[in-house]
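Format notes (please read before filing issues)

Several people have asked whether sequences and structure tokens are stored in separate files. They are not. Every record keeps both together, in the order shown below: the sequence lines, then the token lines. Line labels are part of the format and must not be stripped during preprocessing.
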Amino acid sequence: MARQGGRLGEQGTYRLYAKLHRDDPLPIISGADENGVLWKGGRVGFRADRRIGDDDLMLEGETFREAANANDYTGRYLFGRWEQRKGDGAVGTLQAYYNRLGINNGTADDSEDTFDLSYRWSFAPVGRAHLQCRWWLSLDLHRYRPEKWRPDSQHDSE
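Then the structure lines:
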């Protein structure tokens, strides 16, 4: 695993990371299936935080690829948040998130995309009573394609 971090100007920080792994199959128990699972993969990611005036900004993301025998797993995500503070104690938070997960097992290609967007306004209109207003939108897209239907597939349809 490798990690690196540091400052972004006077009001920010960042970090980067990468990790690779390879896990050999577990020892076989007598009478069990002798095709052990070899698991290997890696991931890289980052996070950055920054304060600008009374606002806090954060952005993080990661991408990965994992392989276990004939299965190939891939994914990535990106997450951002903007938090705005007001002098009266009110806080507005805008968040956005995207995630993609894909699985290919040699006979089918399957993926799912998720998009989330939310806004939260937190305030104290009278004394110590604290209220929150929330708004959010979420969208999930799922795609399943058998291998033989893929345009780049080597399968003949004859």
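For reference, the curators noted about this record: The chain is about 0% helix and 70% strand. The CA atoms of residues 37 and 85 lie 50 Å apart.
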